[in-house]
Design goal:
Oligomer: single chain
Number of strands: 2
Strand order of the largest sheet: 1-2
Number of domains: 1
Mean pLDDT: 87
Order of helices and strands: HHHHHHHHHHEEH
Low-confidence stretches: 254-264
Shape: globular
Helix content: over 70%
């Protein structure tokens, strides 16, 4: 049922786009607001964040286990589909990417910056840029769109395939909570962000391997091998590095340590950096096809 649920959800996403009709998060934020009143002793502690995510996930897991043991698998399908659709990322990724590239081709840096601010989850990184430097703007766009492409779909699919609907829901709620804490400047945002980096670690590394298989293998794997073990490397930094490697951008790594000495070949900027942004979507599409194919093979073998 896991593979069937995934295929149905991907078809629905092609039809109506990222499950937007199910993206209603107010129930979660209402519960978050009530938790301090329910347990004043942990009102400002990190355990409140764990509780906010754990309660709905544990309830869903209990329902899934009950259905698996006592009911038809059809009911499990009816749970997996809406939960997976809900767990997909928010916002119109394809529309935002198109808006940015159109603004870049038109030289409209104000519109391009506005699109990046909308897509950027971290408010501290919004608006703090030189909008006249298109090369820097395109490189930031690559970071923003690469991470958003990962968190909206690939991390969700990874945890769904690994832990079912509860895994996908747990990831999405963690991202929602992290974004909310950043917006209100809560001190716990850093702790949730570090935890998010840990749970994104395996999905990001697997996606990096996928890009190596569907893109330039050698350039991608050089970057992947030097970064894959590092938990200090933030997910967007890792993803951008391996993605540009998969698109053929070479790098030179120091033999004396972990420091990277990047020596780019002569390229015309900002056209080259914009080309990287425009090519990111096709790399995501190739990796998605690879994941679906692998999931189908595993399903047939089990």
């Amino acid at each position: 049922m896991t593979f069937i649920s995934l295929v149905i959800v991907l078809l629905l996403v092609q039809w109506w786009g990222s499950g937007k009709p199910l993206h209603r998060d107010q129930w979660f934020f209402n519960g978050w607001q009530r938790l301090p009143h329910a347990n004043p002793r942990v009102a400002r502690g990190p355990w409140l964040c764990v509780l906010a995510v754990a309660v709905p996930v544990v309830l869903l897991a209990a329902l899934v286990i009950y259905i698996a043991l006592c009911a038809s698998e059809l009911w499990l399908l009816l749970i997996n589909i809406p939960v997976l659709l809900y767990s997909l990322g928010r916002g119109d990724y394809a529309g935002a990417l198109q808006s940015y590239t159109e603004a870049a081709h038109a030289g409209d840096s104000v519109k391009a910056s506005s699109v990046l601010d909308t897509m950027n989850l971290d408010p501290d990184l919004r608006g703090s840029r030189n909008s006249g430097d298109w090369t820097a703007l395109n490189r930031e766009a690559l970071r923003v769109f690469t991470y958003r492409g990962f968190e909206r779909m690939f991390a969700v699919i990874f945890w769904f395939l690994l832990a079912g609907a509860p895994g996908a829901l747990a990831y999405r709620l963690t991202v929602l909570l992290w974004g909310h804490l950043l917006d209100v400047n809560d001190s716990r945002a850093g702790q949730v962000g570090r935890f998010l980096t840990i749970i994104e670690w395996p999905a990001a590394r697997l996606l990096g391997l996928s890009w190596a298989l569907v893109g330039h293998f050698e350039c991608c794997m050089v970057r992947w091998r030097h970064l894959w073990l590092s938990l200090r490397t933030l997910t967007p930094v890792f993803l951008v590095s391996v993605l540009v490697g998969a698109m053929g951008e070479e790098s030179d790594w120091s033999k004396s340590g972990d420091a990277r000495r990047f020596q780019p070949a002569a390229r015309i900027e900002p056209s080259y950096s914009l080309h990287l942004v425009e090519s990111a979507a096709s790399m995501f599409s190739r990796a998605l096809l690879l994941w679906v194919f692998a999931a189908a093979v595993v399903t047939l073998m089990v």
